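agent> fetching stored inputs for the zinc ion docking request
agent> found them:
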Amino acid sequence: MSSTSRPNITAAYRLARAAYAERGVDTESAIRRALAVPISLHCWQADDVRGLEAPRAGLDSGGIMATGSYPGRARNGDEMRADLDLVLKLLPGRQRLNLHAFYAETGGRPVDRDEIAPAHFAAWLDWARARRLGLDFNPTYFAHPRAASGFTLSSADRGVRRFWIDHGRACRRIAQHFSRRLGSPCVVNHWIPDGTKDQPADRFGPRARLVESLDAILDDARVSPRHCVDAVEGKLFGLGSEDYVVGSHEFYYAYAQSRRVLPCLDLGHYHPTESVADKVSALLPFHPRLLLHTSRPVRWDSDHVVILDDAVRALFAEIARGGVLDRVFVALDFFDASINRIAAYVVGARATRQAILLGLLDPARRLRAADAGGRGHERLALLEQAKAMPWGAVWDMLCLRAGAPPAESWLDEVARYEQKVLLRRA
Ligand code: RNT
Ligand code: ZN
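agent> prediction call returned; pasting tokens
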């Protein structure tokens, strides 16, 4: 009998459940809670962050770029949605879909970013509603002639600024429309590529203008914070903005706190020796919630597919220990064009949910007792033992309960789809 057969998973789970119970951990509750956390699937892994506008040659992507040429890239909205349907089938638990503004579908008519409206996302909305998915949204402040200077919301050019402010405002109206239609608030994440490759003479001007532009975007009496949940995403550096990033972390933490919007923490956006896990307890006293982008930086902010690495595990362990799972929005942010893109989604989304599950399987009570009793050696031993626990059996049971394929048994379906659909796209 295969290791992924129902009786074998059930038998392995029974032993795992007992082993965890001995350590004071309730696997049943961990499974339930891990399944309930919504993970927002980024639509942009499906097409290598190209968007659905008519291609414009020679445009700067704002320093983000998918590398690789594996066959099967989705070329239009229908192909993206077909791919995402398969992805959803292979994932356990609740998901949402995270759209970027340049995935508007305008029926071949050019509609510039400052003029997009809910109608241009009707196909996405219908698709989401039929699948009972919530939608999240992102203004696309890059890959556009008006971003070519390297500055958007912080540009010294009033016309450029106006254009991007209007884009941000249009996006928030679209988000509110999604929220009303789907009955679920829409998280709108603002990330801009603004910055300079080398030392600028003026670091003050662009930041002052960014404050003004963001304020102008957020100041819209027609959009309610009940529907539109804004977040701002900083970074340390980008390709082409190595020396100076206008929207740095310090800038956005302060902006977010003073304007009551959320900071977005992307796992790829910090110095490699920094711990994003550590930032959760530093920010949550001041912010009601945080937006998280799970990603994997390999030597730099490379946006590799998320795997169950130490950074992701530490992040969700910290969140579980703090009891703040309901105060974070979880979203994926990676793009790899060098492997099967469906599998990229499945690996990254499953690894993220595995990290959530592992956080919930943490022997939190005993760890805390060891801490309080000054027994650092015991805490260390318990943390090491946690790595050796049979959590894979709990994960497989989680998959069975959710009607999703356990272990790596989803690979066959990806291979079939590649033969039948992806390879024909060439
Ligand atoms: C870029 C940011 C941002 C983008 C997406 C496409 O460094 O991480 O989140 O990846 O908006
Ligand atoms: Zn991000």
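agent> quick read of the result: The chain has a mean pLDDT of 97.
agent> awaiting further instructions
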